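the two lines:
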Amino acid sequence: MADETPLLRAQSVSLRFGGVRALTDVSFAVAQGEIFSIIGPNGAGKTSMVNCVSGRYRPTEGRILFEGRDITALRPNRRAGLGIGRTFQNLALFAHMSVLDNIMVGRHHLLRAGFLRGMAYWIGGAQREELEHRRAVEEIIDFLEIQHVRKAPAGTLSYGLRKRVELARAVALRPKLILLDEPMAGMNLEEKEDMARFITDLNEEWGMTVLMIEHDMGVVMDISHRVMVLDFGRKLVEGTPEVVMADEHVKRAYLGEVEAA
Amino acid sequence: METGLLFQLVLNGLIVGALYGVVAMSFVLIYKASQVVNFAQGEFLLVGAWVCWWLLTTWQLPFWAGFLVTLAFMTLFGVILQVVVLRPLIGEPVISVIMATVGLSIFFQALMKWMFGVFAQPFPPIFPVERVRILGLEVQSVYLMSLGISLLIMLGFWWFFTWSKHGLAMRATAFDQQVAQSLGVSVPRVFAMSWAISAVVSAVAGVVVGVVNGVSSALSFYGIKVFPAVILGGLDSVVGAVLGGLIVGVLENLAQYVDAEWLNWGNMYQVAPFYALILILLIKPYGLFGTKTIERV
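prediction for all of em together
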């Protein structure tokens, strides 16, 4: 694993908004097939980091490489096309659209038939294509156990279900790398366990590499292969959950304890 | 009052109203996708109709060829307008964007007068002018054609937004541009596409009106009539735009009848929709189908 090109690499990324330094010289690499988590106190720059990867922010300095290719200057929609999907910290579903339509938007870049071929629906192969997409979407719906709400407007669902639909929409891109910004925020224990299971399944069975921000330390340490800790926009530590848990800096900055028990 | 006449008026209203509905839909399309209030919507009809007329008379093209070239031209016209005039205004205050579209409206009105003169010009006869009787009512065949085309366009819109990839992308962009981008939708392309479709659809309406009434600067009025229609239906509702258009069409005709029969004020035909507009703004400012913005304090 070590000598392969990592799927994602951030090279000394810094991000400034005027005088505010959101990120300072952060470097890390996510290998193919990993679950990589970013943790840190509020305002540590976790979401900023993810936004730099997804393309919503452009780093002031440094580069982002995806599959060895420099994507720092690419627009978010181009990055989505390359295989970077994401969910949002504050739910961002299309509330008036059905669950099914929400997920179909995620297939946008995979739908090849454009307007003209769509008009020649039956002869242009658009119908076959549509069927294929329907099958793919159904597979995702089954996997995330949202069959019963597929026709419901997304805005009417419970919070936990909406989080799942948002994940389904990101999965519909068939991304190589999926960015999850606090997938478990505001969930109860049962919902958290479900979500953790979905994430590990996506990783193990669907072969997706996961870059995740999460506050629930139990879940993070349970399912992550590696963890990076940010504090005030700087990288504190990076390593396996065991290493990170044992680190003195982390205990001080994040877990808030220094007692030698 | 005779019921026969009443039916005739309502029917006329529906035929004109369907055209208003089509223009209102294209207005709403631009507003929804790119949040621009387009005061130059009527000029899309005007430019489309004049271009088609010019191709048919000066170049003697057969109608279908002239019509197709017009549509191709309007696609380009819409895209160029968006890219050259409106894209640089993204992020500017709403009032600047509105002034820009008002400017476009005045510019194209003047340009068309300069190029084609100030007099109404009839289209070369394309369809045989006949009178058809439906349910005891007399209707000219061109009006039926106009109604048919309006309905086709509405069906086309419905299909586009429900079933096509770009329609879905457009709905997604209207809802949240950043999320749409994260799902691989190119927002600049969606903006350009919405202007192109709006220009093309309006031009079709322009040609239809031109065929029925002749081409003249009066076509610009359709852009103004759109406002009562969309305010009635709700600025961001496509269905509302269609219904609003139909209601305005019927209202106009009934107002004219009431005026001619009892009031004798004159001009009610033109003014009534705007009285309605003021009333609606007082009673139901979001329109029949518009989105209510709820502010949590």
